[in-house]
Design brief:
The chain is an alpha/beta fold and 250 residues long. The protein folds into two domains: 165 residues, P-loop containing nucleotide triphosphate hydrolases (Rossmann fold, 3-Layer(aba) Sandwich), CATH 3.40.50.300; 74 residues, no CATH class. 34% of the residues lie in helices and 25% in strands. The longest helix has 14 residues.
Length: 250
């Protein structure tokens, strides 16, 4: 289908006989925010690892923009425009906010030897880096060392470094995990802003975030797709309710 940007057919991953992802058929429409939810151990993060080739699939196919990317190296998947952020913040803690985003811009342009060039050459990345920093609500703290930032600001910075790679589709792994209520609201607003012109697939445990943010929700349990639809549909599904009963993450 022309409006499908990412799809899987029979996607399966086994670990020594344990099936972590079991014949998952996923369709993500271009321009939408699509969530993967489910109890702990449902296979959500494993599915992310398969989509971005951090793990090879045991069986099944993955297509991005109509191209079969099954088994492709992670760096090539990223170059095609499918970029992932991680559950644990993946920024350099002892560099400044500006330096982190600038490094991401250098990587996006393939400028691997810029580390050896003069500071004057590197300043050409500053304007775009400052724009991205402002886009994620961190204007005014460009020179702050990342280790000194609140957790919510670090997650916002990670999204800025992901945006620096100019992704057509972003995979966000639990973007609000471990956050206080105020930080959750900031990240939700940020995701709403950066979705323009992009597709987002996200793993998220906070169901109130999913309810207000996502167009489509796929519910996984024991590696299988249990239900799919908008929040109103899946939240009333008796099987989904049963899957979440007794789960600390529900």
């Amino acid at each position: 289908m022309s409006d499908t940007i990412l799809e899987t057919e029979g996607l399966t991953r086994e670990f020594s006989g344990f099936v972590a992802v079991d014949s998952v058929d996923l369709r993500v429409k271009k321009g939408t925010i699509h969530a993967l939810i489910g109890p702990n151990g449902a296979g959500k993060t494993t599915c992310f690892n398969l989509l971005t080739s951090f793990l090879p699939a045991t069986k099944g196919r993955i297509r991005f923009k109509g191209r079969d990317i099954t088994g492709m190296k992670p760096a090539m998947v990223a170059r095609l425009g499918l970029i992932r952020s991680f559950q644990i913040s993946a920024v350099f803690p002892h560099l400044t906010v500006l330096e982190n985003v600038r490094l991401a811009l250098q990587r996006a342009r393939g400028a691997s030897f810029d580390f050896w060039r003069s500071e004057d050459v590197l300043t050409r990345y500053h304007d775009r880096a400052r724009e991205l920093i402002a886009d994620v609500g961190l204007a005014g703290i460009e020179e702050s060392v990342v280790a000194d930032l609140p957790y919510g600001h670090k997650r916002a910075l990670e999204i800025a470094t992901t945006l620096a790679l100019d992704p057509e589709m972003m995979l966000l792994d639990e973007p609000t995990a471990g956050m206080a209520h105020g930080d959750v609201d900031r990240i939700v607003e940020l995701i709403q802003r950066v979705r323009v012109g992009r597709t987002i697939l996200m793993v998220e445990h906070n169901l109130s975030v999913v309810e207000g943010l996502c167009d489509t929700i796929t519910v996984l349990t024991r590696g299988k797709v249990l239900a799919e639809g908008d929040y109103a549909t899946v939240s009333k599904n008796p099987e989904v309710i049963a899957a979440y009963l007794g789960s600390a993450d529900a």
